[in-house]
Specification:
Membrane topology: Lipid-anchor
Subcellular location: Cell membrane
GO biological process, one term: protein folding
Number of helices: 13
Structural class: mainly alpha
Strand order of the largest sheet: 3-5-4
Distance between the termini: 47 Å
Keywords: Cell membrane, Isomerase, Lipoprotein, Membrane, Palmitate, Rotamase, Signal
Protein name: Foldase protein PrsA
Length: 299
């Protein structure tokens, strides 16, 4: 679980971390040492010639453009709600994860805000077409709900299956055998998930969706990255009609596009074009070349 949050932090920080480097000018001292001093001018010249310095400036420009155009669409409450979700999910280890990634609470919230702004920009600049919906519908599967008994050994899972086949109660066996502290006292019941869920192991999802009727369970242990699971189907709604799932399909498409570099490059390009960016330092004229032509950012 911690790996997923760490990956998210690094991805957002890499794209949107804002540091005060670009824009420094003058002869003020940044650091002193026996051999002399380092001025803001020297520091700025060094930073603007480095890839990390150019990335920082690019990030600052994009972040300011997003804030200017969509700031009113993201509230402090939304940011706090997202922050609290992560804090609650990772509990006592959350602060440690932030520290390991060199981030404070304020920085993490800033990254969350920028991520939310980016989601707004995507929805404002890319429309879901009927063709998109039909394509997404082909692979769509409604959310299902299952219960699981998670154990560390295959032999233990096989023992549980044998007991189920002999008529023993799944809920009681979950309480007795499962190592999943979040579900064992709930009869193994998990939150509903769909085939695109990133919080559920792929092999687990595959096995769960193969079950047909409520009450069916896997007759062989399901190996996942967490151990061995015995899965029982609680509910599996029929797919129904596409028109009944339009909102959900759109959400899935936007979530997918957020991870698509080609789509997001196009969105950011539109945001920057609207921002009418003008790069005043000729050494940095191509800092946005990945998004706009150098002539449009030169001015």
């Amino acid at each position: 679980m911690n790996k997923r949050l760490t990956k998210w932090i690094l991805a957002i920080a890499g794209l949107f971390m804002v540091t005060v480097v670009a824009g420094c000018s003058g002869n003020k001292t940044v650091a002193t040492l026996k051999g002399g001093r380092i001025t803001q001018d020297e520091y700025y010249k060094e930073m603007k010639s480095s890839s990390s310095g150019k990335q920082t400036l690019q990030t600052m420009i994009i972040t300011k453009a997003l804030e200017d155009q969509y700031g009113k669409d993201v509230s402090t409450k939304q940011v706090d709600n997202e922050y609290n979700k992560y804090k609650s999910q990772y509990g006592s280890s959350f602060s440690q994860i932030l520290q390991q990634n060199g981030m404070t609470t304020a920085q993490f919230k800033k990254n969350i805000r920028t991520n939310l702004l980016t989601k707004v920009a995507l929805r404002k600049n890319k429309t879901v077409t009927n063709k998109d919906l039909k394509k997404e519908w082909k692979s769509y599967q409604p959310k299902i709900q299952v219960a699981q008994i998670l154990v560390s050994k295959k032999s233990t899972a096989e023992e549980v299956i044998t007991k189920l086949q002999n008529g023993e109660d799944f809920s009681k066996l979950a309480k007795e055998y499962s190592t999943d502290s979040a579900t064992k006292n709930k009869g193994g019941k998990m939150a509903a998930f769909d085939n695109d869920s990133t919080s559920v192991d792929t092999d687990f999802k595959t096995a769960a969706y193969k079950l047909d009727k409520a009450g069916d369970y896997t007759d062989t242990p399901v190996k996942t990255s967490y151990g061995y699971s015995v899965i029982k189907l609680i509910s599996k709604p029929s797919k129904g009609k596409m028109s009944d799932h339009t909102a959900e399909l759109k959400s899935k498409l936007y979530a997918s596009w957020m991870q698509d570099s080609t789509v997001m490059q196009s969105v950011v390009s539109k945001v920057l074009k609207k921002a009418d960016v003008s790069i005043k330092d000729s050494d940095l004229k191509d800092v946005l070349s990945g998004y706009v032509s150098s002539s449009s950012s030169k001015k």
